[in-house]
Amino acid sequence: MEAIKSILVHMDSLPRSRVRLQLAHDLAEQHGAEVTALYAAMSGDLMYPMGASVGYPWEPIVSEFNDERRTLARACYDGAVASGLRRLQWAELTQRESTYGFGQRALYSDLVVMGQYEPGASTAQDVMPDFVESVLIESGRPVLIVPYACEAPSLPATVLVAWKPTREAARAVSDALPLLRSARQVHVATWSDDPFSPTAPQDIEAQLRRHGVDPTMHGGGKAPEEMGESLLSLATDVGADLLVMGCYGHSRTREWVLGGATRTALQSMTIPVLMTH
């Protein structure tokens, strides 16, 4: 991707939406992009399907529940606009689309900003635990995932790229090029599971240099057994504020089967992660 001109950011009723919106706005200012804040949350009747079976007038309760969450999300957006955030527009999924329509909308964006799923959050979750995975795999668009433990992510200044000679990694690097060019430092962790692979670390280094990126190279050779943990550890060592990596996985009857490093990053990230499937 040569430029970022359209950013789609997921909005729900949780306070973390404000953090995602701020980061999307900052990226839009940096790259001359427009931001669509798309509200997407599961309807109450999907979250609590057994409610309708108890003989109670359930529909008014569900409607009020849905309206309250939408109002919270819209208030977050309006507050962001009032505070000076620009280049923003509001959009909503229809009730029929539910959250599954988000991946379809993502097809028409250069970059998608979403939040890491927070298990055991004190407030009700508006999306399924595999929401990020489904958007990644169904849309094929680059998704910037903001960890729930990150209070105020800044524009990426130091980036760690996870590289091995695969389609997923190549797509991730290509999609991340605008962010890599605007970063002050770019580190590349390399490995290959194939000892006979003709692809050497200097190949990705040369490719990045052709695009105006001057990387610092790390590693080489066979991938570590706990690749995801090693990546997150290296990100801490180099002071990275963004990790770029391919998303390895596939869908199986609505179940997302993920690779080990992908699963570890999604569960244990402490800095934003840009993934592409």
Molecular structure report:
The radius of gyration is 19 Å and the shape is globular. Helix content is 38%, strand content 22%. The protein is an alpha/beta fold. The model has no long low-confidence stretch (mean pLDDT 86). The protein contains nine helices and twelve strands. It has a ten-stranded mixed beta sheet, sandwiched between helices. Strands 10-11 form a two-stranded antiparallel ribbon. α7 (201-210) links the parallel β7 and β8 (215-219). α8 (227-237) crosses α9. It starts with 5 loop residues before the first strand and ends with a strand. The chain has two domains: 6-146, Rossmann fold, CATH 3.40.50; 158-276, HUPs (Rossmann fold, 3-Layer(aba) Sandwich), CATH 3.40.50.620.
Keywords summarizing the entry:
277 residues, single chain, Rossmann fold, globular, two-stranded antiparallel ribbon, 2 domains, ten-stranded mixed sheet, 38% helix, alpha/beta
Helix and strand run: EHEHHEHEHEEHEHEHEEEHE
CATH superfamily of the largest domain: HUPs
Assign the CATH class of the largest domain.
Answer: Alpha Beta
Strand composition percent: 15-25%
Let me know the largest β-sheet: 10 strands, mixed
Strand order of the largest sheet: 3-2-1-4-5-12-9-6-7-8
In the CATH hierarchy, the third-tier topology of the largest domain is known as: Rossmann fold
Low-confidence stretches: none
Through-space gap between termini: 14 Å
Structural class: alpha/beta
The appropriate CATH architecture of the largest domain is 3-Layer(aba) Sandwich
Helix tally equals: 9
Whole-number tally of structural domains: 2
